[in-house]
Please model this.
Amino acid sequence: MSDKPRESLAESVRQSLRMVIDPELGENVVDLGLIYEVSVVEVGVVHVEMTTTTAGCPAAAYLRDAVGSAAGIVEGIERVEVGLTYDPPWTPEMMNADARAHLGFGRKAAGR
Model:
């Protein structure tokens, strides 16, 4: 598989992962910056490297399973590997602008 189809398939998986909502924050895992890497390692096999907001996150197993399920429904994906890492640790700066705004990060105080 050449790089172009791999990149396209990885992007399709990344889009599908937007269906996975962190139950505590109410935002999808992609916009929260919890997805570190999506790579097609061979035909039909995708590896997703992800994190949670804290190492002791009670939703870690749910999020990991949901990410695996969301990636697995993408056409052309037959097997999903999901790795959970805390290196680097997640920080609020990893969220995209929409997620930061929705959760109230980065708002300027009135009159400043």
About this structure: The longest strand covers residues 35-42.
